[in-house]
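Lecture 7, part B: from sequences to assemblies.

Below are the input chains for today's worked example.
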Amino acid sequence: MEKESSIMVIGGGIAGIQASLDLANLGFHVDLIEKEPCIGGRMAQLDKTFPTNDCSICILSPKLSDCYRHPNIKLHTLSEVQSVSKKEKCYSVEVKKKARFVKEDACINCGLCIEKCPTKVNDKFDMYLRKRKAIYLYYLQGVPAVMAIDKEHCLYLSNLDKGKDICRQCENVCPKEAIDFSQEDQISTFNPNAIILATGFRQFNPSNIPQYKYAEFRNVITGLEYERLICASGPTNGHLERLSDKKPPKKIAFIQCVGSRDIKNQKYCSSVCCTYSTKEAILANEHDSEIQSFIFYIDIRAAGKGFQKYIERAKQEYQVNYVKGIVSEIKIDENENPILYYENIASSELCTMTVDLVVLASAMIPSDNIEYLAESMGIELDEFNFIKTVPSEPIKTTRKGIFVCGACKEPMDIPSSVTEASAAAAQAAQYASQNKGD
Amino acid sequence: MHLKTRGIEILTELRIGVFVCNCGSNIGSIINCSELADYAKNLPNVVFAEDNLYTCSETGLTKIKNGIKEHNLNRVVVAACTPRTHEPLFRGICNEMGLNPYYFEFVNIREQCSWVHQKEIHKANLKARDLVKMGVARSARLEALEKYQVEVTSSSLVIGGGISGITAALSLAEQGFEVYLVEKKRKLGGMLNDLYRISPNYEDPSEYLQLVKKVEQQPKIILHTNSEIISIEGYIGNFYVTIKGQNKVESVEVGTIIVAVGAQVLKPVDYYNYNGKDIITHQELEKLLKENKINQKNIVMIQCVGSRIEERHYCSNICCMNALKNAIIIKERAPDTNITILYRDINTPGTKNELYYRDVRKNEVIFLRYNVNKPPVIEDGKIRVYNNSLKDDIELDYDLVVLSTPLIPNEDNKALSQMLKVPLEENGFFLEAHVKLRPVDFATDGLFVCGSAKWPVSISEAIAQAKATAAKAAIILCKPRFEVEGSTARVDTEKCVGCEVCIKICPYGAITKDDNDQVLVRNVLCKGCGLCGATCPHQAISINHFTNPQILSQINALVERE
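Predicted structure of the full complex, as structure tokens:
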């Protein structure tokens, strides 16, 4: 079937990737817009996925390649939507592509530039747990597999306006002449017939809950930090160790509903934490069978396929204990071991527990540019700033021709995101076909 | 070395490249991959070998491409995770580089080695060497094959006329495809017909049932109510389905099939003195609410009846929201009603559901948690439930007890799964191809599943899944042809004596006889399972890509240890 219509997908995480692939296979041209230097999103940061313990990047990676290779998909990385207006049968979308300072078609990802680059920067992909260089590959398996230069931190670029001409070592060492300091941010206009939003989520900052002392205690970390720590391509090469003394932990506490189900922060439930904390506890025990875990929870919510069984397995085979009760406060002892104060609801007793490491299941919240994006698109958000939908039309936004999938509309797991992505593809395809040439 | 390529013997020098994947720690923590690559370098015909952290990353793929180019490779061996998820990718890379994709060989050193021998690292490393050696030997014997093109009939069958089936059928029809919608019962709408209101917005099911009218008016949808599927034959693009209606039996041809048969509510005959009178299910309660027959003073709802227990492990996902909704409806009609919900964990994930739960708590509905080891007891007109905080029983009066029972699979799932040749999971729900990334596909091409046939879901989730299956089906239906696997059976007519054992044993009906009484394989039907090859008494059948010389070369490589 010949189709001239094009569809824009905003967000290159698993939802955006799946929607793009389905649309491309339906014969549509897809412009996939991603603000980071590579597509992959949150799923690329995870170590394994529940309830099968499949390695996350391993099952994602073929999809990244499919997206990159598909003749109907054009990837626009380092790109963000600036404005959207409605034309007759399509939208007019302005997209700003930030300068990469590396020619995408020339870079062969040999890494010589990284070796030479003198500037170290905290690495966002690794949740700031290690340093990268000012010229960098966003992550090891990232697509497109080409470098990007961080303008703010690059010695040459950051000193340019001071009239200094320094460094440029990457340029000297690059065998392919791929470095291009003359690149500038570019604004392009696209005319898609339909738009799919898949901008995902970010993690709530637990410093907002003072009693957990996340900002002060090095051995109190978030779920995403833990994912990077236990991941083989992460900052410790997969060796699970404490940030304070690099000692491997033997007793780990996982605290649920950190910033979720909390009237001072997010009133809603983040949906996936009970199961992902169970996964993280299982992984700890797989790394070291002496590790014991304690999951502090309000309600166990494990309704997805195979999830309840996963929790039973965690209890029986991996030394995972579930404690009903909210932790009220965390202190530390002289060795920076966290001490938890909590009520055990099962026994109605006030208790303390000293552990080696605390992992906070921090709430999923909408991405930071969502308000701007919603305003420019003319769509409504719900009271939490997620994109508004109604249960009978789970994929439609409040504006015709703009659809939504994944965690930008409500916290959800990977299978639900993938399902919604395909559903969004069906609806966008239907809409674009009906609104073309008539 | 002589190689047979489409019947022509050509003389080619074998140039094998081996790529060993660390797969982060999945393989690298057990197997020394750089040593394994060094070992591979010394195997016969191997001209290039290296290890990568992730062979499937763009970086790793580029290395394969460069390897093929720089070393003129004509066979590629990747030792990595599993062909199930990654073989298509690596074959695609070979294809891109002008190498027949069937010249690619996968050695599984994750599932068959590092994962299963974690406790015996030394032996695991020896085994990895053997596996690579076998893979290299086999790759030398691989033959170039072509994929087959299948014509696609551009229509679809949707089995089940509940909200999932209706939504899927409408979506496909509105994309321009013809749909046969088959419903067992007289009426479309499935469970929607039994509901009084829908959570969390109290919608009247009739709002959703408007879709039924849309279905009836949609010219692209051919409706079969009061009908059952009695047989399904064929393959992607060409399924032949027999539908038995009340008065007639009809055969239709479709390109794809969507399973949307839903589920049923467990009747709790063995739980809590269920009697259908003053101890009822929520499904029965909804009926009474519809008829406005609820006026009891003391109502107790019990959650997880028949679920999250030894005999049925799973959480049925929708019962908490359903109970909360019914509690609110009763409270709004008669605010003086005492409603107590006995629960284990309240399952209201996400934004809308959790807010709903908060609202219900404000409405003077009492929530009492019970311990699964000391479940509530109904005796002498009272309910006794043990309370952890009081360390004692609480006694509750009741006029009506409502039991939250799970959705369970339909009894005829098994028969349907056999017709479709797709698996069910341990509880009897349909099993998808991959729980994370292929949530609405079956492993067999052209077959899809949505709604509670797969797992208990809310109406909203069912709608999303149904639309997802519509996208997946449309991807196949929008093209006139579809490619299928080239590794099929072939018959050596010289050796075949026409005994027909293969015809009887083939589970796909792929083998038949032509006009000259000669046995022949219909390639698009053949799945390459090998049953015929193993059964043929005259060794007249071989399976492309799994020929005797190929398999023997692997075995020989293994036993010829130095």
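Note for the exam: Chain A is about 25% helix and 25% strand. Keep this in mind when comparing with the next example.
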